[in-house]
Batch of 4 targets.
Target 1
Amino acid sequence: MTRVAGWGGVPAVDACERVGEALSEVCRPASLTRGLGRSYGDASLPAQAGATVASTRLGDCVLLFDREKGVLRAEAGFRLSQLDALTRPAGWVSPVVPGTHHVTLGGMVAADIHGKNHHVAGCFGAHVRSLLIQVADGRELEIGPDREPELFAATLGGMGLTGHILEVEVALLAIARPWLVIEVEPAPDLLALVAALRTASRAWPYTVAWADALARGARLGRGIVIKGRWAEPGEAPAASPVRSCVDSRLAVPFDLPSWVLAPTSIRIFDAIFYRAHCWTAGRRVVHPDRFFHTLDSIRDWNRMYGKRGFVQHQSVLPAAAGDEYMVRYFETIVRHSGASFLTVVKDCGAEGRGLLSFPRPGVSIALDLPMRGAATQALVDALNRLVLETGGRIYLAKDALTRREHFLAMEPRLAAFDAVRRAWDPERRLRSALSVRLFGDAA
Ligand SMILES: Cc1cc2nc3c(=O)[nH]c(=O)nc-3n(C[C@H](O)[C@H](O)[C@H](O)COP(=O)(O)OP(=O)(O)OC[C@H]3O[C@@H](n4cnc5c(N)ncnc54)[C@H](O)[C@@H]3O)c2cc1C
């Protein structure tokens, strides 16, 4: 038995983790599959404490890398950090990346992850050409946009509930130079921040904003917008950065005491972070990992939240709802003293193919919240009521505390997802702690 948890550390359960190189043997029909456990809440946890979970972390072989066409096929446990090291020097990168490179291809598909370029590139699943999947009765099938398209669509963002992804084939993105040109722009308040983000997204392929969730009054939601694009010849060296600049030896060695990330220290951190970026505003060329995976530069940074851990709440507020909802969202955080160390705001583009994929046109807000029991639950409830009013939704890969009634009200697509699941897994053999909490599966 090992203690397994998502990245936030809550909840954590004892589970029997099966690890091995031959994925089709490791992934047996009735157990959930997990990658590197970088989803935050209970998505990668078994439905029941003590049950078996299959880990893909040793199944990481590359099966094909076509350097001419930019196509990669690999086993589901192949990590984004490995992909970067292999393909970037050859002029190809993953078309969509999350904020950490410690994720597996299987996890990227199962969460249908989005990146800072969602407004132009959609989710990872939009670039997946084919998957080898083992469904609940043990059969292995090759699926894709034209082969078993319903099962394929349900698997993108299906959080591992449609089958075990064994292999992933993805079309890569060609780049001229393996360096990023970035530009940093401060914004004095929330509405200015969102306006600057939207303007930036019209001209830049990668955009993201960081907001100070504890600033009050006229400075509510102040922050910085960071824009990026791959460098052109003449702007940066042709040589690839030798190694990742974010995999340093800097690490948080143990769970820090909870006062370290108390509201006062977070307020001070946020204020310093904002000022520091005001001073460094402007354009420069950086190592791509510095832009895409900044947080990876401190190993085990989740330990800063101490033994009680933390949860993340990420939601998308549809553009049609109007910006006043964003103001109400930030006022709710301030009212609940919901200190968030890093509040990330992104511009989402069109909805993709995945039946339960998270993004839809609008603004996504992601908060890290130190776990404070009932107070944190009350804040998540309040935020979810607001998300519901706007017709928005939450991101399953980041969720730990959403109540089932809120999820059902947010997710009219669930019936279509359930229909596919019924067709391929009528007994719901594939379950997770998340599917018990939100989808009504038996424990
Ligand atoms: C610092 C940080 C930044 C992040 N930034 C972003 C971001 O910008 N955008 C974004 O979209 N996400 C982001 N995430 C979330 C992360 O990308 C996803 O949760 C991703 O799924 C994690 O991959 P993993 O391999 O660790 O999967 P796990 O966390 O182990 O599993 C995630 C889900 O995928 C399922 N799964 C995993 N492998 C398989 C498989 N082989 N077959 C079937 N199901 C499988 C699991 O059952 C589970 O439901 C971030 C996470 C962290 C920690």
Note: The chain has a mean pLDDT of 92.
Target 2
Amino acid sequence: MARLQVSGLVLAAGLLAATATGAAPAPVDAQTINQIADEGFNRGEVVETAAYLADRIGGRMTNSPAMRQAEHWTQSRFKAWGLSNVRTQPFEFGRGWWIEAASVRMVAPRPVTLRAIPIAWTPPTVGPLSAPIVVAPLRSPRDFAAWRGKLKGKIVLTSLPTPPKDETKAPFERLSDPDLAKLNTYEEPSFDPEAAGKRAERQRFRGQLDAFLAAEGAVAQASMSRSDGGLVHGEGSGYRVGKTPLLPAVEIAAEDYRRLARLAKVGEVRLEIDSRVHFEDADTKANNILADIAGSDPKAGYVMAGAHLDSWVAGDGATDNGAGSAIVMEAARILSALHVKPKRGIRFALWAGEEQGLLGSFAYVDQYLATRPSSDPSLAELGPYYAADGFPVKTLPGFAEMSGYFNIDNGSGKIRGVFTEGNFAAAPILKEWLSPFASLGASTVAAQPTGSTDHVFMVKLGLPAFQFIQDPLDYGSRTHHTDLDTFDHLRPDDLRQAAVILATLLLDAANSEAPLPRNALPTPQKVTDPFRYPDPTPTN
Ligand SMILES: [Zn+2]
């Protein structure tokens, strides 16, 4: 109760400030804000939703049996809460893949069970595979010649061990006021015509390396975790039909990998890999999940919130991004429970294929908002993340209807504000809409653009699409894509706070007189530094 009174006071202060700056007053009346807070804080279900996704269903790799289960369960929740038009949006993806059981052991010179995980979409071993290792650093096709004829029958450790890092930063953090202030610095966009090609070369090398090792008669590939502390990830990229890697491959925890490499310098080391993994090919289509609250004015368009439901496989997909999915679902539940009748429709999206390059949100953009050709057809096979940047942009009828998108995918920390993603005109409006929540720590509007998640393709079209600022907690240090991504790393208070703020902002955007301002539809960029000579260092 005290919290609601404080919110009311802050709202009044916010309205005064709005008059002073000339921004329009908040479109959601104070009473409704307090009802949203009451429903979220006192009868919230977000914690149970997140627990079901993380504990009961677990890691949700796109097209895996767990993700199929999540597709069904989330739709049944939306329906039970009274959302309308609950549906899937299928799009072509590729193979499902999951781990039944896996173990990696050193069997000589002494027995040790290693912390390790199969790389996603690599094939199984046929029973336990026992073989000697060789440390063969292979960073580009230029390194292949030195190892030709030396890898037959070997488990190849394909990188040199990097030294352990001195951990000087606290692994769990909340943002201080100076941290938040630093985020409000706009980094101008830059355009380097070589950048996409270099990224693509790195991506293509994974396939080239697998083919080289298989041709040389190697029996498996092992790589080192990029994190210390026993963490493993298991990210892989061979999800497309016909692109499955040839060799079983595992990622080994950094400390275990370094030990193997040290021992291999002075004698023979044997590993036994048992990778019981499975492919699912019955349906190669992935599904976004969509659900609506109808708007009263059919000409006013809609606003939208989204989070990705898919995850990696090492953990339970709790912070990435069961938390965001549960927050989006809870915002839907709260608004439906209050029987809101917004001017614009409100759409809720749970994306698939985010971890493979924002594929689900791209499929939505491509089907409903706008299409664009690839600037370089040779990059098209690598997916939209590499290729969907050509001209001209062709808008679809749904383009005009999209009036605002809010994405949540920065772990499970509470909302501290919003990134405006280069939309300068939206900053004062978002500041005003957040003003009731200063007491909840969520008043920062930061200019810094963010990438790597599902608002990106909308931002690239100039649409008003935003990502939230969240307290990092231990997301970057421990849980992001790792085997520690479990429910324990969620904070119930933070989840409830985020759902209340998301529900309110959606209603603000749905009821505001004018839609949120857009950026211009993109046209070709000039090279940022016209006087730079091309980089003479080949990456391969
Ligand atoms: Zn992720």
Note: The chain has 15 helices and 18 strands.
Target 3
Amino acid sequence: MNFAYETYKNVESSKNFSNKKEMQEYRSLLMDRVYKKEIPFFKKKFPKGLGEILEIGSGNSRILYALEKENLITTGTGLEISPSRSEFANIWKKDLKSKNVKNICGDFLSINIKEKFDTILCLTSIFPFFDMLQKNGFNTFLKKVNQLLNPNGILILESVTFKQEITSAITFGGKVNLWAEFKKSDPFQFNLVEYAWDKKKRELTATTYNTMRQKLYIDGPTIKKWHMEERKSIEQKLIKNGFKIEAVYGGYSSNPYKDNSLEYIFVAKKIK
Ligand SMILES: C[S@@+](CC[C@H](N)C(=O)[O-])C[C@H]1O[C@@H](n2cnc3c(N)ncnc32)[C@H](O)[C@@H]1O
């Protein structure tokens, strides 16, 4: 099994929540985040909506439910490798009485999807996983995305650039330990991460432990790996795989990307 499956397999499992109230508070936190970050971007840049969409690595489907609520999609399909996250998304779907979002559990690199889409989203730092999941994984990902898009379909890729983590790791000889505290309504309290940077291969590995708020429980270690490419090399791969670059933003603020941006968002159109 690949690290994406191992890392996320129990995330948002129902057993992390003692009661419905806790789950509701957690859902509010998720929605709060989408309305602050992703939704203003989609409203500003895609006011006419995104049509029939697929989100690859949709997690709990928070973005899809918010887009549905804002009438920015016709239908939304969420593809998620983690069974517990997909289950969380389906329980939420029932409570929201969502009609136009469906959730599928599977690995994008191996699943067979028959439908075609107007827009494909791959957000929150997942697209740099694919090279680490299999050799030339990002190219394979782009080829498959291209086949799943309707003519002139749009692909939106977003990731943080990890510039600060990489700089800190370099400062401390290749590895750095960082921590952060989650918001109060999160069942977990502290996030402890070791970032290791392989400069030659441009590979970043995060080894994470999360400590629970109410229970003496530490979740971890979980491993994530990203192939952090420069803007140019991502653009070249998009072009090689039949896309035209429409815009590169430096984050959801939709300012143009700069060398010191902490995030990048590529908007590309299928032209071949
Ligand atoms: C950082 S989370 C973001 C989730 C969602 N996009 C959001 O913003 O709430 C990345 C998700 O991608 C999923 N994922 C990683 N590799 C995947 C793959 N090969 N196929 C499907 N899902 C994948 C993970 O399980 C995880 O839930």
Note: The mean pLDDT is 96.
Target 4
Amino acid sequence: MSASDHVPERSWSARALAVIPGGASTGSKRADVLYGAEAAAVLPTHMTRAWGCRIETVDGRELVDCTMALGAVAFGYADKQVNAAVIDAISLGNVAALSPRLEVEVAEQIVDVVPCAEQVRFLKSGAEATAAAVKLARAATGRSTVIASGYFGWHDWSNPGVGVPAGAHADVVHVPFDDVVSLRNAVQRAGSDLAAIIVEPLVHQVASRAWLQLARDACDAVGAVLVFDEIKTAFRICTGGVQELLGITPDLTTLGKAMANGFPIAAVVGKRDIMDVARTAWISSTLASETAALAAAQAVIHRHSQVDVCASLARTGNLMQQVVAEALAHTAFRPDGPPVMWRITGGDGAQLDRLVAAAALEGVLLKRGAYQFPSLAHDAPSLETIHHAVARAAEEL
Ligand SMILES: Cc1ncc(COP(=O)(O)O)c(C=O)c1O
């Protein structure tokens, strides 16, 4: 008899809270984070199935998802071609004593499509990839100071807070996104100890060319390493990320999320002389080259070579923004930002919580205070559902 047989009457949310701190291993999937504390108890928390842009909940409701697993899925859930590639790969043995051929093949594909990529190291999560990029930069330069702008995952180097000794991030200076003056001042203070500037090149909007070029020039001037964290942007805004869009090439880049349509893989990629340091700086993970995720990435990158995935995502994101703008016309809210990753802005936080909660009850999952991600699977009927649900939710405000 399994543990679940003893608690049939308890809701999945209560069961989750009993055995998983916060109720979910991914912070953004916690009910209170999804919907706000007030509504969390009555809204869906667990799913039994996900396909296309839809989710079936444990109590049999069907939801249209605008969050697409925090941007990890761009083709749609359970994409047939990606799944077929994964099944083929794992049926040949998911891991073994030797590296799989796929590791080389996917690294070659990435080198072909990401401008700065001359070499690739695979890892499992975005947090690992950014930690690896910072370590490579420090090892390559023999310096400590890192200027950072963005979110880079939960690891200690980038996240001060409970449980993190001050020393872990003592040499990391955070600067605001797209703020030329702050970046210039931070570079000046770092002087010749600057190891790296690591930035997310898109936060709500693509960064200005002036800010990214300043970062490029500052690194060049002192021999520091420029890192673009393109975990959300590569394979979404352009196949090769913001660096392809703007033509400013960093030394290192981190990749993840849409690269494998929801299978767990990330990578640090970049210039050969810096990547080469990975032979001596210790960066290694037991399952880094398991073939399920590599096969998914291979299928994703192959599709990008066949059709313009990013243009389709932008078209669909535009339509999403249009129907949501129409539905929210009489509220303080509006869709904002690039169509491939947009947000709902305006209004106040409590109202937004109520809007998102009401939309969930009407069958549409939106992420409060964060990005909505279109996918190739958002079709006309799902856009109609989004329009209807958001309009009903807006009426309830
Ligand atoms: C820009 C960026 N970097 C790093 C991460 C961390 O990735 P992961 O959650 O896979 O560790 C994220 C996750 O949202 C991200 O958006």
Note: DSSP finds 14 helices and 15 strands in the chain.
